[in-house]
What we know:
The chain is of the alpha/beta class. It has 8 helices and 11 strands.
Amino acid sequence: MxxxxxxxxxxxxxxxxxxxxxxxxxxIVTEIKSVxxxxxxxxxxxxxxxxFRGVELKNLTMARADQIGxxxxxxxxxxxxxxxxxxxxxxxxxxxxxxxxDVERVNYDSIESALRENSIxxxxxxxxxxxxxxxxxxxxxxxxxKAKLVVKATKVDGVYDxxxxxxxxxKKIPHLTFSEAMKMGLKVMxxxxxxxxxxxxxxxxxxxxxxxxxLLKALKGEDVGSTVVP
Length: 230
Ligand code: UDP
């Protein structure tokens, strides 16, 4: 089965952190390795919150701040490729926005052959455009690698009716549709990402990635996290 895993930049740095935390990075490798070894074909879209987020650079024009954010996703992708390869996994980076020795242009034949050789596909550079997010990029790249599932790796074990960190009575919603999530104003993903999921028939699973083994359980169809269906 093919799956696109969306990692936020903070997955690499720890919550609120900057840069790369070696323990976090080791953890990501362990979790991804466990699913690759089970035969799942993995694509990754990584954010850049550990380096830059466009919205944080308030003194810049949005389009410029977002371009800096996009480059941050390339940095994270190169970092991930290196740590995956050091742990014996194969990984290839695809992007439309940079021309670097370790980065290939998105090419569907190349993606297919990479998947056949069990390489992890790392998609860098978001959607290639300012004004979007890496959530939208995750859905776009899922479609390009022919995955019908996007796993959003978060620090919360699913979708709640309100922020469980602020409200102790928040209720988990294990199954919902994109329309329901939109109507309830739940911030699972942005509206552009939802619209694309609906259009392309892609399901999103929101999991607590930081609970060891949860990614594998989610891919094996066990009842973890929340599932948002088109
Ligand atoms: N970004 C963009 N276009 C995209 C994806 C990302 O301009 O298609 C920029 C945007 O500035 C964003 C930053 O890259 O804030 C990092 O992405 P994101 O905020 O999604 O990262 P995360 O919060 O998941 O770490």
